[in-house]
Every structure is written in C-alpha cells, then in structure tokens.
Write a structure and sequence with these properties.
Number of strands of chain A: 13
Strand content of chain A: 15-25%
Number of helices of chain A: 9
Largest sheet of chain A: 7 strands, mixed
Oligomer: heterodimer
Shape of chain B: globular
Number of helices of chain B: 11
Structural class of chain B: alpha/beta
Radius of gyration of chain B: 19 Å
Distance between the termini of chain B: 33 Å
Largest interface: A-B, 49 and 42 residues
Structural class of chain A: alpha/beta
Radius of gyration of chain A: 18 Å
Largest sheet of chain B: 8 strands, mixed
Order of helices and strands of chain B: HEHEHEHEHEHEEEEHEHEHHH
Distance between the termini of chain A: 20 Å
Number of strands of chain B: 11
Helix content of chain B: 25-40%
Strand order of the largest sheet of chain A: 1-4-9-10-11-12-13
Helix content of chain A: 25-40%
Strand content of chain B: 15-25%
Order of helices and strands of chain A: HEHEEHEEEEEHEHHEEEHEHH
Chain lengths: ~250, ~280
C-alpha cells in the first residue's frame, strides 16, 4: 500500500478545480496542474479537452512528460486559442511569480517596469485570459515572496483592478482557486478577498498565514484538503505520473 | 533572393515584424543577416524568442513590441532579460491577443479593433497611449481600442515555397505569419526549400498554402534557416545548441566566443560551424 504524498494531495486539489467545468478546454501550466487535469478527465470530469502543448487536442489519458499516444480529436493552433479564450470556453491554471489579495497576478517583471530587477516572460495572454474565462493559479512554493500585498505588474487581472476598470473588465472575470504546496484558497472573502479554503494534511493554518504577505480571510472552521481515493492514487502512480514528477515539483 | 538582398531592402529605424512563436519556426537566417548589416534603431514586433535575444544583444533594437519573449523549453530569454534589466530598449508590452488584434487591424486597414483583453491590467498603465472606445449599441460597454500596428517589413520562415513566393507551412501551426505579412508594406519569406508550384498542393494539401504570393515581396531558399528554433516537420528545435546559446549569453566572454564561432561570418559559415559541432559531438 503506498502512502499519500504532498504531491498527491496537490494533484488532486488541482484536479478538483475542473470538477464541474463540463466541456471546456483546460490549459494547465506546470507539472502538477497537468497531472491534475489528466486525473480529472480520467475520473470525474470526462468531457474536458486539452492539448499536447502544441496545436493538437488529444483524447485519452497518458503519462505527463511523455508524448501523448493520441488519438487527436481536434486542432487548436494559436490563432484559435484566442478565439477560444475570448469566447469563454476555457479554464486556465497559470503559475504566477506574484499574487495578491484580490487575485492580481504577475508573470511579467519584478520591480519597476521601466527597469525591472528581474525580467520574466511578459504578460503573455494573462490579461485576456482573466477577463474572459475562468482562471485558477498554481503556486508550488507558497511564500511571502509570491503572496505579496501588491504585485509589481498586473498581468492577470484581480477583482479590485477589474472593478476599477469598469463593467467590461468585470463581466466575465471568474477567478476560481489558488492551489499551493500548503493549501487551497479562493476569492470568497469580503469584496472577493483571498480566503483559505483548506489546508493540506500536515500543514497548520499558522503555516499558511506565516507564508502569506497579506491578510487572508479565514473561516472559523478550516477543513483539511482531501486525500486521493485508492483509485486516484493508482491512476497517479501507474498511469498519469509513474515517474513521480509531482513530487519533484512540490516540496512537502 | 538571398538573405543579404532582403536585408538590403530594409532601412534603419524601420518597424520590422518577425514571424514564428517563441523558439519555433523563426526566420533565423534573416535575423543573422540583420546582424551582419548595419541596420539599427529598429522597432521589432514579435511573439519573441531568440530572434529578439540576438537583435537585443547586438544593439539593433530601439523599441520592442511583444506579448512575451521565451525560448519555450527554457522559459526566460537571457539577452532580452539583460536588455530589459539595463533599460537598454524601449518597450510596448501587450497581451498576446492584443498583438494579434494590432496586426489584424493593420492588415484590414482599420484604425483599431476593440477587445476586453488588457482592461484592468497594467498593460494600460505602462502603455499610456492606449485608449478605450464605448460601444455605440445598447450595451454601451467601454472596451480597449487596440491601435493598428502597420509594419514596414515582415520576415517569416515557412517550410516550402515556389519561386513566385507562394509559401506553405507543413507543421501543426501557422502561428501569425500570414498576419505579419498582411500587416507589412513588404513581406519576405525564407523557406527550407523552393519547389515547383505543382508540388505544393501535393506536399501538404491546399489548406497549407496560407501565405500566397500576393502577400509576399521576396522569397529566399534557406535550408536549416530556422536553426536553432524548431521547424516541424523538417526538424525539431536544436535543444543542445539552445542550451549552449543560453549558457554563453550569461557570460560576456563566453558570448564573445559564441559570436566569433557562429555569428561573425556568412550564413554558410554559420551552417558549417553548426554542422562541424554536430560531427564533433
């Protein structure tokens, strides 16, 4: 009997993000979100679609990090990605370098934009993604460096920024969940502030608070993040992630 | 045409769009030809990869218009990072979809196209020239008006073309190469192989002929011209070479050696140096 690792719990927490999405294209960025997406489709969310990382939507279940065996079920070149995203039939999970209390996310640059201390990728599709379709975030290392009072460059739009920009920015904004190596969070606090939903087994509320650089909304009762079922654990270990890549990304 | 003839049609200060995506199907032999030229003060428009990195490292970029710059398998582009962190270039950073809209607006001769993408983000803060537009219909939504981005020239690399410039992609994704061409005053295609027109449709079917000659002003035969970026199905990304590029970019002396080995001669010299390295390994 295998024991449950923190990586297992995170993979299941990522999978849960897509539970009720129906027939949406999911775009998981990072290893554990990719494991979670495979797990969700193989179990409780069979209608999800996702790509091979290039331009092909692929059916079936395969080991993350390996080429998919197929079959191709659709074509999704970048030209179609923006149509899909702006039309709303997508749920992305992005990996922010900074994330703040109302869900503003930074993947562009750290420091002053005019002369960054550390240039990252650029805003990529984050501004468009967030104002058009459901967005979740994955943070493999939950620290005060990532969870900051205010991000340096708003790439993914948060609730406060969208409210300031007006109804057209808020209309389809739908920030779902933040999964970290410590906890599951959402934006169910006052004025869509970030709220602690559950802590992973072995993590205390104090651990989460100490590693978050702003005030979290915390209900009186905070449950533990659920562990994988026996079936899920078997799928993770034997089919979706036999090499345990999730356990390399997530430090307990 | 040759690469050098194409670059001879460009002038310093021009706005030049470069096709491909990240470290995929970039017109690298044309970029290398820019490095051999005396072009400077360019405004470069790109879904950026090592094209942007090389031009930044050589000091040819005045302004960069981009949604991202990445090497895909290596997320961050070291020369682009260095240029940004030294404030050596001016930048227009857009959402990726905004950049598509800007090229599309230029292509169909509209002054702007409306979108939600960008609203609420710091793209608006760092690009104070951007304006919004109010829908004239009952919804009265206030949307971002992405201004058209006309290009003086476009450089793209495709798999095949005929001698008149009918070009074809054989890989999984055209990216935005057709939009770069239609947004441009002059568009130049490099390709792996120039073939007789009759062979094009046989090779990939009619739907792969997405950059026809009315979009194109010149064609260059450039075998391995996208190296070290990918050019599926002709070849994949040269990951070993890309790692070598990144390692060299992080150290000034190593970079000098890299330039000396690969970038100080002709395209033929470059391809020979790359091949020699393969033989040695």
């Amino acid at each position: 009997m295998s024991t449950v690792s923190r990586g297992d719990v995170c993979a299941v927490a990522c999978a849960e993000v897509w539970r009720n999405d129906g027939e949406l294209v999911v775009s998981p960025m990072g290893t554990t979100p990719s494991v979670g997406a495979q797990l969700a489709r193989a179990t409780f969310a069979p209608d999800l679609l996702f790509s091979d990382g290039e331009a092909t939507l692929v059916a079936g279940t395969w080991a993350v990090g390996s080429p998919p065996p197929g079959p191709a079920e659709g074509w999704l070149p970048f030209r179609s990605v923006f149509d899909l995203a702006w039309g709303g039939r997508r749920h992305v999970m992005m990996g922010p370098s900074q994330l703040d209390r109302f869900g503003n996310a930074n993947i562009s640059a750290i420091g002053d934009f005019a002369r960054p201390t550390r240039q990252l990728l650029g805003v990529r599709g984050a501004p468009g993604n967030t104002v058009h379709h459901p967005t979740s975030y994955w943070v493999p290392r939950h620290t005060t460096r990532c969870f900051v009072p205010r991000v340096d460059m708003v790439s993914g739009v948060g609730y406060d920024s969208a409210a300031k920009a007006g109804p057209a920015a808020s209309r389809f904004l739908d920030l779902r969940r933040v999964i970290t190596n410590l906890a599951v969070l959402d934006f169910g606090g006052p004025d869509h502030a970030m709220r602690l939903v559950s802590v992973h087994p072995g993590v205390s509320i104090d651990d989460v608070v100490a590693n978050t650089g702003f005030e979290l909304a915390i209900d009186a009762e905070v449950p533990q993040t659920r562990e994988p079922t026996a079936e899920e654990l078997q799928l993770l270990n034997e089919v979706i992630d036999p090499e345990g890549l999730r356990n390399k990304e997530v430090r307990a | 045409m040759t690469e050098d003839e194409v670059i001879g049609r460009l002038r310093s200060g021009m706005t030049v769009g470069i096709g491909g995506w990240g470290s995929r199907r970039k017109p690298m032999s044309l970029v290398r030809a820019i490095l051999r030229s005396d072009l400077r003060d360019l405004t470069v428009v790109s879904y950026g990869g090592p094209d942007v990195g090389l031009l930044c490292a050589a000091g040819r970029v005045k302004r960069l218009v981009y949604g991202f710059v990445s090497l895909d398998s290596i997320p961050l582009e070291p020369h682009f990072q260095a240029a940004r962190q030294a404030a050596a270039i001016e930048v227009t950073e857009y959402d990726e979809g905004m950049l598509q809209w800007a090229l599309y607006a230029a292509s169909i001769r509209l002054p702007f196209l409306p979108t939600r993408a960008g609203l609420g983000s710091d793209v608006i803060r760092v690009n104070p020239q951007l304006r919004t537009v109010v829908s004239p219909y009952d919804d009265a939504e206030e949307l971002l008006a992405v201004p058209a981005l006309p290009l003086d020239a476009a450089l793209v690399h495709l798999n095949r073309a005929d001698a008149s410039g009918n070009a074809q992609y054989l890989g999984p994704d055209l990216y935005f190469d057709d939009l770069f061409c239609t947004a441009a005053e002059q568009a130049f295609v490099s390709c792996e192989r120039i073939v007789p027109t009759a062979e094009l449709a046989e090779l990939g079917g009619i739907a792969s002929l997405r950059v026809p000659r009315w979009m194109v002003d010149g064609v260059v035969e450039a075998p391995n011209g996208a190296h070290f970026t990918s050019c599926a199905p002709d070849y994949g990304r040269d990951e070993t070479f890309q790692r070598e590029y990144v390692a060299a970019a992080k150290d000034p002396q190593a970079w000098q050696e890299f330039v000396h080995t690969y970038l100080s001669g002709s395209e033929r010299d470059y391809q020979q140096a790359v091949a020699a390295r393969g033989n040695a390994a």
